[in-house]
């Protein structure tokens, strides 16, 4: 199995765009930059997707894992009170079902 080739294609975005505007094919762009045709194809697809999202008014997708929703102190207290009420009700029901008080 061959070693995976990685290239920082973000650094080449302006060159790729210029070559595309000049009417070069994916294969010609890849040969000019010493890359694989698939790398150029994937970059073009990502670029087009990004541009269509921007054109339609959608925000660009964020990379990585989404952040957790952080609760305010008041929301934390309300959640904890709700949880404790439910726990008390469960314990009360359990004690009643075992005929204890």
Strand content: under 5%
**Residues in helices, as a percent range:** 55-70%
Number of helices: 4
**Form type:** elongated
SS content category: mainly alpha
**Main sheet makeup:** none
Plain-language structure description:
The chain is mainly α and 101 residues long. The chain has two domains: 9-55; 71-101. Helix content is 60%, strand content 0%. The protein has four helices and no strands.
Q: Could you give the topology of this structure?
A:
Layout: H1 13-21, H2 26-33, H3 37-55, H4 73-97
Outline of this structure?
The chain is mainly alpha-helical. It has 4 helices and no strands.
Features:
101 residues; mainly alpha; 2 domains
């Amino acid at each position: 199995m061959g070693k995976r080739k990685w290239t920082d294609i973000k650094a080449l975005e302006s060159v790729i765009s210029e070559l595309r505007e000049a009417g070069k094919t994916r294969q010609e762009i890849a040969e000019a930059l010493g890359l694989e045709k698939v790398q150029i194809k994937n970059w073009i697809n990502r670029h087009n997707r990004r541009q269509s999202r921007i054109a339609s008014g959608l925000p660009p997708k964020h990379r990585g894992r989404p952040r957790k929703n952080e609760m305010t102190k008041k929301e934390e207290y309300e959640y904890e009170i709700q949880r404790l009420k439910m726990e008390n009700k469960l314990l009360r029901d359990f004690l009643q079902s075992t005929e204890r008080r």
